[in-house]
From TrEMBL:
Family: Belongs to the class-I pyridoxal-phosphate-dependent aminotransferase family.
Highest taxon of the lineage: Bacteria
GO biological process: amino acid metabolic process
Protein name: Aminotransferase
Short name of any one Pfam family annotated for the protein: Aminotran_1_2
UniProt cofactor(s): pyridoxal 5'-phosphate
PANTHER family to which the protein is assigned, alphabetical: ASPARTATE AMINOTRANSFERASE
Magnesium keyword on record: no
Organism: Sporosarcina pasteurii (Bacillus pasteurii)
GO molecular function, one term: transaminase activity
Domain Aminotransferase class I/classII large stretches: 32-386
Amino acid sequence: NNRLASRVNTLTPSTTLAITAKAKEMRESGIDVIGLGAGEPDFNTPENILSAAIDSMKDGKTKYTPSGGLLELKDAVIAKLERDQGLTYERGEVMIGVGAKHVLYTLFQVTLNPGDEVIIPTPYWVSYPEQVKLAGGVPVHIEGTTAANFKVTAEQIENAVTDKTKAIIINSPGNPTGMIYTREELESIVQVCKEKDILIVSDEIYEKLIYDGNEHISPAQLSEDAKKRTLIINGVSKSHSMTGWRIGYVAGDAEIVKAMTNLASHSTSNPTTTAQYAALEAYNGPQDTVEEMRKDFEARLDKVHPQLAEIPGFHVLKPQGAFYLLPDVTEALEKTGFANVDDFAAALLTEANVAIIPGSGFGAPNTIRLSYATSIELIEEAIRRIHQFVKDNW
Ligand code: PLP
């Protein structure tokens, strides 16, 4: 079909959104489906943030803002980076965008030339390779194995670098892995990035969802050189339960941020003004709701992780952050006879009425992803159903 540009030929819809849509359709036709596909917190946005948004509208703050975002919001992000990570940035090094997803999209558009390679560790968040390809770049995958807690080493990165390598994406805490890179691991990674002179795209969207006393470190915190080559990507979606508001940001190199802002001025103009005022309150207002939500997620994880681990043929590491569980189901597939995780997920949805996401979309075809961003009762019931489903097919 020559109506479509060739750049969308290989574009596939996000697997996460596709399964979620199918589950919703089944639910609407009266089937009792439990969805563990969600990529968003199940809490409403905190009350103080809702009020700030309403007040801003009533004050007439309903017009365009600067393309890179409200200056007050940039300042709030700068204050947050200083407060949480001890990092100092200037306004010219920060851009507010339409969610972390579109900020990443814009970043790849302004940094990649045709054929430029971006190293993406597996398992990865579904949109990274698609966005890199849309910008003319080439995703290069290196494997974070189950044995290595789904993380990659500096050595693997070094071996993957070619003269075309432009950047590496580090997502810690990770989606779908829930794993966190330690300071020591990041130190050796930034060392390689310095030697090979590559950019570090650090997706820190799950920064606030960390359990068991683990610590979030940004590569940008490790040295002046690391800070210069790191683009921090973050936003309010997961930390403040604000996925629908679509506010994210980048902090990093001024030249790149300026190009991103120029591109935004011709694509989005600015993120929705009301949402920016909401985000302003999210960063400047009280942070206790962030911690309350984190605690709630941690309690769910502690409760359901052992239940999932009991399912025959499931091997599941305990995640350190985010809100996903990623069991390796290689043995369960062998014993139940499903050819792959896609077939397993499809049968699980139609026969046991549980929606999970097959890891094939994350470059981890031996895994399935379950989100625990739903009530504990529903997660427990879903795990019971999965357990029964596996036993019935064994
Ligand atoms: N990065 C990762 C790893 C994510 O999981 C998500 C959301 O699912 C995003 C970025 C996008 O977040 P936002 O809602 O800010 O676009």
